[in-house]
């Protein structure tokens, strides 16, 4: 019997990477999950409450406040503290915490499902601008230099890379000089179809985003006032009240901040919306954009990153080349003018279904590992 382990950055927020990990843990229910740390009672912790999770010996200090971020220089020690040499197969879910460098045996195969090479290491936009203060910027530059070397070195020891999109496949080739296979993340298309089947459209647009550093929120808020539609924003944030008062003023009160929603409620919000607005400039993939299409709702998305792979212009949404009031205003008019075919939106979303993910992952692992 093949002995399998899963490895993941850490357990805090439940986002796209954690959704992928959850499906992997369903595929391999007996596989323990090794992680840097787990925040008890967090949204991610609740989703994995029945799984065997093994934290690093550094977990007690990493989970104090947000020390896992300033203590990122410990990353080599964190992963190096794990000995996974008794496993035949290790499947890694890697993102910003690098999540490689653990000890393996001579026969251990390592498959890395890469959500992205760490964005903070390679100059990509982050949701939180942690380098805006010059002492942090200097610290980050020094630590980043050594972490890039560590990231590259550990990437060479991976047997096989899987990229979550063609966008990430290009980054893996650029930064690691490694080939990879694209397997898109698992979207609960069937569940979304069932939940949203009989919903009626309402006069609002929706954005799903952390409110810290999210691009386009102010522009869309101004348009909500100008074009007289309601904007609903789903997502966790810091400084919620400050953001709320600012956006409420810009929107003329045409805004609702819904906070974090459980999946069924999120799907209903998507299903009733006129459109989803997604404006990250270089999104790794963007699962919510596909979830919106599965709910029969067209998308306004920035013409870049993974959005290009999931949005078909004029069929499932509108791609915009710049984030400005005029550009977004034209896109909103286009969304309202076109008679969107729900069947076409759902059909496109099916390309990214959970069933296809499981089928492709199973075939890949059977072939290579």
TrEMBL record:
GO molecular function, one term: glycosyltransferase activity
SUPFAM superfamilies to which the protein is assigned, alphabetical: UDP-Glycosyltransferase/glycogen phosphorylase
Alphabetized UniProt keyword annotations: Transferase
The keyword Transferase appears for this protein: yes
Domain Glycosyltransferase subfamily 4-like N-terminal stretches: 14-189
Keyword Transferase: yes
Domain Glycosyl transferase family: 191-351
Alphabetical list of InterPro entries matching this protein: Glyco_trans_1 (IPR001296), Glyco_trans_4-like_N (IPR028098)
Residue ranges crossing the lipid bilayer per the database entry: none
Pfam family, one: Glyco_transf_4
PANTHER family assigned: GLYCOSYLTRANSFERASE WBBK-RELATED
Protein name: Mannosyl transferase
Organism: Candidatus Woesebacteria bacterium GW2011_GWB1_44_11
């Amino acid at each position: 019997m093949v002995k399998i382990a899963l490895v993941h950055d850490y357990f805090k927020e439940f986002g796209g990477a954690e959704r992928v990990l959850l499906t992997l843990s369903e595929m391999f229910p007996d596989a323990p999950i090794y992680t840097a740390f787990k925040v008890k009672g967090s949204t991610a912790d609740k989703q994995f409450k029945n799984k065997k999770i093994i934290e690093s010996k550094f977990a007690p200090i990493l989970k104090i406040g947000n020390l896992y971020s300033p203590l990122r220089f410990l990353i080599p020690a964190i992963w190096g503290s794990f000995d996974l040499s008794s496993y035949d197969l290790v499947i890694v879910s890697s993102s910003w915490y690098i999540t490689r460098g653990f000890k393996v045996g001579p026969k251990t195969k390592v498959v890395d499902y890469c959500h992205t090479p760490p964005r903070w290491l390679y100059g990509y936009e982050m949701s939180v601008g942690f380098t805006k203060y010059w002492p942090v910027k200097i610290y980050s530059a020094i630590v980043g230099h050594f972490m890039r070397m560590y990231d590259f070195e550990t990437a060479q020891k991976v047997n096989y890379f899987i990229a979550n999109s063609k966008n990430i496949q290009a980054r893996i080739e650029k930064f690691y000089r490694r080939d990879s296979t694209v397997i898109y993340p698992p979207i609960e298309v069937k569940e979304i179809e069932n939940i949203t089947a009989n919903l009626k459209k309402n006069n609002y647009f929706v954005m799903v985003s952390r409110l810290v550093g999210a691009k386009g929120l102010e522009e869309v808020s101004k348009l909500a006032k100008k074009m007289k539609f309601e904007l609903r924003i789903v997502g966790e944030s810091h400084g919620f009240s400050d953001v709320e008062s600012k956006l409420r003023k810009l929107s003329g009160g045409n805004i609702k901040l819904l906070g974090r929603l459980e999946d069924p409620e999120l799907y209903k919000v998507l299903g009733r919306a006129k459109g989803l607005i997604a404006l990250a400039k270089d999104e790794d993939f963007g699962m919510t954009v596909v979830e919106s299409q599965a709910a029969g709702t067209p998308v306004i998305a920035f013409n870049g990153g993974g959005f290009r792979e999931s949005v078909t212009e004029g069929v499932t949404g509108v791609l915009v080349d710049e984030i400005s009031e005029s550009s977004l205003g034209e896109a909103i008019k286009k969304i309202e003018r076109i008679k969107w075919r729900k069947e076409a939106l759902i059909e496109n979303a099916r390309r990214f279904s959970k069933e296809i993910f499981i089928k492709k992952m199973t075939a890949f692992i059977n072939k290579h590992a």
